[in-house]
Design goal:
alpha+beta, Nuclear Transport Factor 2, Chain: A, Glucose Permease (Domain IIA), globular
Length: 429
């Protein structure tokens, strides 16, 4: 049957609709696409709702409190004074090394407390570079950590000519007091800074300045020093051995240190010398003066002349408050007329050279504040200003070559900057 014959069986309205649908389909298929659709396919983007991350809660601001340790303070007295829980002292002692809780006057303590006055964080400052830190963990138990920061050490060269004294002219040249004390200590066995210094003497040295975060926080050690005294020149090089022990030596490796200090005080005036025929100023009769008297203000620190053991510390007749130290089997030193003893000065205690054992006074037979100092060898009194002092040990043979290499470099380093007073130097390698 022909197509025209079959179409007669469809209603007219259906035929019109079919024709319209066919025309629409042809238009869709053959109508030219836009340039953009010829280049890329249409993309359908489903926009998802924005997910906002929860804000990180700000860390709570800690309310740090602080206090300075006073003379005689313990952790218990300090906690009581600041209304902190005494129970925490026991807890601190249980987790900290013993030496961490030994407080010294001038130290700063910092803490954060809870509402019931228990410490949440606690800090004992040792220096700008180190502190003992305590904090509570999630269970509330105290934890201990030694916090250390690293400083920047920058060497500096200085020199001065002496017209008045080491400390006056050194200070005027911009040398810090603590560095001058170091210098006096290094050469103190060979130079009597009260009697041997002459106008025109000079010194030059290189020492470390200590910086933290770009700011100077202090001074370090003298690295090398040279002192010209009258017709002699003395040079001292700082050297650290393989065990970490440091000391000063001549460029050839001889120790600058003797077994005894020439003088047991830093600031003084010799008021009376060793004299077996001296007339006693109080008893007014001839009585041998078997020591050296150092006039100084009451309270001036007195140092042990050498390593040893205290065999007497107390009141002793005309000597007043007196300390006697035994140094090995042959040597003894005596210190008299003290105003008071150092708190660690006790019979039987061992002392180190330079350790403060007491303070100048005028107890016993004395007309004014001074130290009476005696030096005995095999029980015989000797003039401490003239006796030849035994030397300490020098560089070990196993480290001699390493020392000599460093010593040579250090001496050349000092020589190269000897005319550059106050200049900043590059790090020594």
């Amino acid at each position: 049957m022909a197509l025209s014959g079959r179409l007669q069986y469809f209603p007219r309205i259906h035929l019109i609709g079919a024709v319209a649908a066919l025309i629409t389909l042809l238009i869709i298929v053959f109508w030219p696409s836009s340039p953009a659709k010829n280049l890329q396919q249409t993309r359908y983007v489903i926009e998802m709702p924005e997910i906002i991350a929860p804000a990180t809660p700000a860390e709570p601001v800690l309310n740090w409190e602080s206090a300075e340790v006073k003379s005689g303070d313990s952790l218990s007295t300090l906690f009581s004074r600041n209304n902190l829980s005494a129970v925490d002292v026991i807890e601190l002692a249980a987790v900290a090394p013993k030496e961490a809780l030994r407080l010294h006057p001038g130290q700063t303590l910092r803490w954060v407390r809870s509402q019931d006055n228990h410490i949440q964080q606690f800090q004992i400052e040792l220096s700008p570079l180190a502190s003992h830190d305590f904090s509570r963990d999630q269970e509330g138990a105290l934890q201990y950590e030694l916090q250390e920061r690293h400083a920047d050490y920058r060497p500096r060269f200085v020199s001065a000519v002496i017209d008045n004294s080491l400390f006056v002219d050194g200070s005027q040249a911009g040398v810090p007091q603590e560095i001058l004390f170091q210098l006096a200590g290094i050469f103190g066995w060979d130079i009597d800074f009260a009697l041997d210094i002459r106008k025109g003497d000079s010194f030059s040295l290189i020492y470390d300045e200590v910086f933290l975060d770009g700011d100077k926080i202090g001074n370090g050690n003298i690295l090398i020093a040279r002192f010209r005294n009258k017709d002699r020149e003395l040079t001292a090089v700082r050297y650290q051995d393989k065990d970490g022990n440091s000391d000063y030596f001549t460029p050839e490796g001889q120790s600058m240190r003797k077994e005894f200090l020439r003088n047991p005080m830093d600031f003084f005036r010799i008021s009376s010398r060793f004299n077996l025929g001296r007339k006693h100023p109080v008893l007014n009769k001839i009585r041998a003066h078997k020591g050296t008297d150092y006039a100084a203000p009451t309270g001036t620190p007195i140092k042990a002349a050498g390593d040893g053991k205290i065999i007497f510390a107390g009141r002793k007749g005309g000597y007043g408050n007196c300390v006697i130290i035994q140094h090995g089997s042959r040597y003894q030193t005596l210190y008299a007329h003290m105003s008071k003893f150092n708190r660690n000065t006790r019979n039987g205690r061992k002392v180190k050279q330079g350790q403060v054992i007491g303070y100048v006074g005028m107890t016993g037979l004395a007309t004014g504040p001074h130290l009476h100092y005696e030096f005995r060898v095999d029980g015989v009194h000797r003039d401490s200003l003239r006796v030849e002092l035994p030397k300490a040990k020098s560089i070990a043979s196993g480290e001699k070559q390493a020392f000599l290499r460093k010593s040579s470099n250090m001496v050349n380093w000092l020589n190269s900057f000897s005319d550059s007073e106050g200049s900043q130097l590059g790090a020594f390698q």
